[in-house]
Amino acid sequence: MVRSSPILMCPPRHFEVSYRINPWMEPGHVVVDRDRAQAQWHALRELLAQWAEVVELEPAPGFPDMVFTANAGLVLGRRVVVSCFYHEERKGESPYFLRFFESRGFEIEPLPESIFFEGAGDALFDRGKPRLWAGSGWRTDRRGHAWLSRILGCEVLGLELVDPRFYHLDTCFCPLNDGSLLYYPAAFSEDSQRLIAAHVPAEQRVAVEAQDALSFSCNAVNIDRVVVLHAASAALRKTLEQRGFSIRVTPLDEFLKAGGSAKCLTLKLHEELAVPAGKSAP
Ligand code: ARG
C-alpha cells in the first residue's frame, strides 16, 4: 500500500485546560482526565500509523495546547510558514515548532511582522485544485492571505469565520481527497458561503448538520480513502461511504474540552498543490 505523508503529533503529557481562548475551554468547570486523554491520543496515533508514519514531537511543560500540532505551521513541499499565535498563552509554542522544522531540514518562510497566522488550523489545501483555503475572523489575520498567495505561488481563497465555536478553519471545513468538501456552512459569513458555492460544485459539497459540526466531524483526518474522526451521525457516515470513503470513528472527547479533535492533533509533513484534473504531475 502507498504510504502517505508523515504526520506530526505531540503526546498530551502536559495537556490540560488551564485558560480560555475559545468557548469550548472552561477552566475550573471542566477537568481533563489526563489518563483518558493519553489513551485517546494513543488510539488515534495507532489508527493513523496504519497508513502513515507518525512523527512525535516532545511536548513542553507550560504549553498544554501544544498537542494541537495542526497549529505548528503550514507546510508546502520543503517549505514551512511557522505559526505566529494570536493569544499570549500559545505564543511560546512557536520556538519549539520552529526548532522541529529546522531539525527536519525545512526551509523557513518568515511571516511578515505583526501578522497572526495559526498554520494548518487556518489554512487548508484544496485536494482537487491547486489552491489554498484560508480562514480569518478569530485567529489568523486576513492581511496575511495575499502574502501567502505570493510565497506559495497559488490562489488563496479567504473565508471569514463568524461563529466563535468554530474559531479555526479546520473546525468546520475539510477538503477531501476526491476534491469534495466537508463543511458546516453556518460557521461562515454569507459572503464566504457564496464564495465556497462559487468554487465547489453542489455535488461536491457535503454540508453537515449542527449536531455533526458540534461533535467536530469536520475536524477529520483524511488519508487516501479513509476518514478518521471523533464522531459521525448515521446520515453523515452514509454520505461519506457513498462517496467511497471508509469511516473510522475514534473518541477524542477529552480534547473537545479544549476545542480540538482529530485533525487538530495532527499535521501532515508533506503537502503538495493538487494537480487539476486532466493534467498529469510534472
Ligand atoms: N485550545 C486550542 C486553541 O484554542 C485548540 C486548538 C485546536 N486546533 C485546531 N487546529 N483547530 O488554540
Fraction of residues in β-strands: 15-25%
Query: Could you say what the CATH topology is called?
Result: L-arginine/glycine Amidinotransferase, Chain A
Sheet with the most strands, sense and barrel status = 3 strands, mixed
Task: Count up the helices.
Answer: 8
The CATH architecture assignment turns out to be 5-stranded Propeller
Small molecules bound in the structure, each named once: arginine
Uncertain residue ranges: none
Shape: globular
Trace the largest sheet across and list its strands: 2-1-15
> Averaging pLDDT over every residue, what do you get?
96
Structural class: alpha/beta
Please give the domain count.
1
Helix content bin: 10-25%
Order of helices and strands: EHEEEHHEEEHEEEHEHEEHEHE
Name given to the CATH homologous superfamily: L-arginine/glycine Amidinotransferase, Chain A
Rounded to the nearest angstrom, the radius of gyration is 17 Å
User: For the terminal residues, how far apart are their CA atoms?
Assistant: 22 Å
CATH class: Alpha Beta
| Total beta strand runs | 15
Structure description:
The chain has 282 residues and is α/β, with parallel strands linked by helices. It has one domain (4-15, 23-268): L-arginine/glycine Amidinotransferase, Chain A, CATH 3.75.10. Helix content is 24%, strand content 19%. It is built from eight helices and 15 strands. It has helices at 34-49, 88-91, 94-103, 144-152, 190-199, 210-214, 234-242, 253-256, and strands at residues 7-9, 54-56, 73-76, 79-82, 107-108, 123-125, 131-136, 155-160, 173-175, 181-183, 205-207, 221-223, 226-229, 246-249, 267-268. The strands form five sheets. It has a three-stranded mixed sheet with strand order 2-1-15, covered by helices on one side. A three-stranded mixed sheet has the order 3-4-5, with helices on one face. It has a three-stranded mixed sheet with strand order 6-7-8, with helices on both faces. A hairpin with a 5-residue loop joins strand 6 (123-125) and strand 7 (131-136). The chain is globular and about 45 Å long. The mean pLDDT is 96. The structure holds arginine. Residues 21-22, 25, 65, 68, 70-71, 90, 121, 168, 170-171, 258-260, 264 line the site of arginine.
